[in-house]
Amino acid sequence: MHGQLTGTSGVVPAEPDLAHHGDAEVGEGLVDLAVNVRRAPMPSWLADPVTASLADLAAYPDPGPARAAVAARHGRPPAEVLLTAGAAEGFVLLAQALRGVRRPVVVHPQFTEPEAALRAAGHAVERVLLDPADGFRLAPERIPADADLVMIGNPTNPTSVLHPAADLATLARPGRVLVVDEAFADTTAAPGVPGEPESLAARRDLPGLLVVRSLTKTWGLAGLRIGYLLGEAALLERLAAVQPLWAVATPALAAASACAGPEAVRAERAIAGQLTTDREHLVARLSALPGVRVAGRPASAFVLVHRPGADRVRSELRRRGWAVRRGDTFPGLGPDWLRIAVRDRATTDAFIEVLAEILEA
Question: In the CATH scheme, what is the code of domain 20-39+265-360?
Answer without folding.
Answer: 3.90.1150.10
